[in-house]
Specification:
mainly alpha; 12 helices; about 0% strand
């Protein structure tokens, strides 16, 4: 490409692209932004329970504050097995595991609609469903977080002259944190408003729809096991 052609190409680029070339490359990556959106979905759902779960069990089961706090153990306990989710993602690929996570979470989020009155059976059912929701959410977060950095490594290799020695990992991590931060604000506010204005069932259905929405770009753009195996093989040969 001649100097004149290079000059014309740069002049056709937006101001943002010229000033922040590495950031522009990251934001244009469908695979990377799919992972960012998936992390946003994960935290929105988790944050939603922070806003409504304690209120729901207090109103439905007459739990005190201590009992309402204990119910969160069912939701958070599956995170203990995070290394197992990571192993599954490494073995079968981020796409497959994340899609399983969205499916498990969506099904488990739909079923709490049946919780309507105070009884030991209903408390037990809700606890089991919260465990399943926790499993589904962790199956979403772990592979998509890993896939963000898989894609970052590929983008750095393809655009080595742009990224240079600085790399992109700090920017990718900042996108991860931005998704979490935005979701922490949106999730509780949205679900809290819905719960007060409508019902527990409507609130859960919106979270189911969010899960289904999040699964679509994952199916289309998130990396799979075969792609990761090829990348690892190329690294070994190098």
């Amino acid at each position: 490409m001649s100097p004149d052609e290079c000059s014309k190409l740069r002049s056709s680029e937006s101001w943002f692209t010229r000033q922040f070339p590495t950031t522009s490359i990251l934001l244009r990556s469908k695979r990377l932004m799919t992972s960012v959106f998936g992390v946003f979905v994960y935290m929105t759902i988790a944050g939603s329970f922070d806003a409504v779960l304690a209120q729901f069990v207090k109103r439905t089961f007459d739990f005190d504050s201590f009992g309402a706090g204990l119910i969160f153990i069912a939701l958070s306990a599956p995170a203990i097995f995070g290394i197992a989710y990571g192993n599954l993602s490494d073995r079968y690929g981020p796409r497959h595991i994340a899609l399983i996570g969205f499916t498990v979470a969506a099904l488990a989020l739909a079923l709490p609609i049946m919780i309507t009155h105070k009884s030991t059976a209903q408390i037990a059912i809700l606890s089991i469903l919260l465990v399943l929701i926790g499993v589904g959410l962790n199956l979403i977060l772990t592979p998509l977080s890993a896939d963000m950095f898989y894609e970052a490594a590929i983008l750095e290799e393809e655009n080595a002259n742009v990224f240079g020695e600085a790399g992109s990992y700090a920017q990718v991590y900042s996108l991860f944190c931005a998704a979490l931060g935005l979701a922490v604000a949106v999730g509780p506010a949205w679900s809290g408003l819905l719960y007060e204005k409508t019902s527990w069932g409507v609130t859960m259905l919106t979270l189911v729809l969010l899960c289904l929405l999040g699964s679509v770009p994952v199916f289309l753009y998130t990396g799979g096991r075969q792609e990761n195996a090829i990348a690892l093989a190329e690294d070994d040969q190098a």
